[in-house]
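Listing S7. Sequence submitted for prediction.
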Amino acid sequence: MKLAFTKMNGLGNDFMVVEWPVDRPPPTPELVRRWADRRLGVGFDQLLLIGDARPADGDASYQIFNADGGEVEQCGNGARCLARFLAPRFGSELTLVSPAGAVAARVVSSEQVSVDLGVPDFRPAALPFLTPEQRDRYRLEIAGRAVEFGAVSMGNPHVVIPVDSVETAPVGILGPEFQRHPSFPQSVNVGFLQRENERSIRLRVYERGAGETLACGTGAAAAVAVGRSWGQLGADVAVSLPGGVLMVSWPGPGAPLWQTGPTTAVYEGYIEL
């Protein structure tokens, strides 16, 4: 059986988008890893599966699988790409439902798409993060050093580490160390935040199940939420990632966080299922 797919990306964070047959079980981790291989398969950071049935609380449902084959809860850039993919069918304003819940999306132009990623959840249990109490800043001994960080759930788990420079940040060292630390039983996405001013930051993200990516939508959201909780950022922030710039707007506690950025449909193809 040949399966149609569309290759898309948001700021270089790339996806294989598939409308999954209703009569088939989800792909195995081995199949996802084979498709994710950049030499032998399609190559992607995440696989996005669109459900066949329309959910009661939205226009379409979707599942997210990282390149390592593991299923995850949410993906900001993925949600934006799906909104653009589905807009011809459902209109420029639509609701997408992931395992983390419903996401409102708005196709602003032929390229720019905004998504409502919900209210940032700083409760450690929401990640989950095994720690005695909720705090604005935490500290753990990681890779032989004391590392200070913030923690938040954007429907998926994130820690955010302040750094003087993203160029020299030990992304490849601290990222894997945090992900296998016993304090994060379901692993964690790790962001490295360089503040430029209250309206501009630079960010690198080591993603759970994918490694460092060119951009991470929920990582950008988490960085702004944590930076704002520290009193260092304003309500509207430009987040510069290796793949480009995302705009993040968050008025503050109790309010939803919106994110806007470009999406690109690269090509369409078929793959043997």
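Caption to Listing S7: primary sequence and predicted structure tokens for the chain studied. Residues 76-90 form the longest helix (15 residues). The chain has two domains: 2-118+262-272, 124-255.
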